[in-house]
Amino acid sequence: MSRAFVDEDAASGRGEEVAPLKLPLPPGTRNFMTPEGVARQAAELRKLQLERRPALAAKAAAEPSPGPALRALGECDRRIAYLSRMQSLLEVVDPAVQRSDRVRFGAAVTVRQTPEGERRVRIVGVDEAEPGSGNVSWISPIAKSLMGARVGDTVRCELPAGPTRLKVLSIEYR
Prior knowledge:
Elements: H1 8-13, E1 31-33, H2 35-62, H3 68-88, E2 90-92, H4 95-98, E3 108-113, E4 117-124, E5 135-137, H5 141-146, E6 154-159, E7 162-172
């Protein structure tokens, strides 16, 4: 079709091209999460669907031309789609049931990392990760290095800052 017959105004009103959802999971894997993470994610999805999206849709409808509310609505829809997709891949892993002498999903692990000293990390789902508070994703380099280790083991870990060694001091499941 010739570009002469394309309605430029209609095309610009549709908004920007939206990239397909990219999930932070390795292909073919499940979305492992703790029960607490599942509850937080479900609450966020409900709030987006029942409160935020309707409010943004009303604001966007009141705008004389596509503006900030319409962009915010698009971002909200994208977040809803992401959370819905991640929930479709969900597998709840309760750390309290894990009970193992080895590091597994949900473990809170105290390690000694020289020269930094002791550090405590908890292995959680990708959407639960908050490295600053010690919650690391099960697909992170530190979690991958620790998986299967026992108290007393020393593992090698490839961090962005460079390789390091971690000695496992304790393993707890809550």
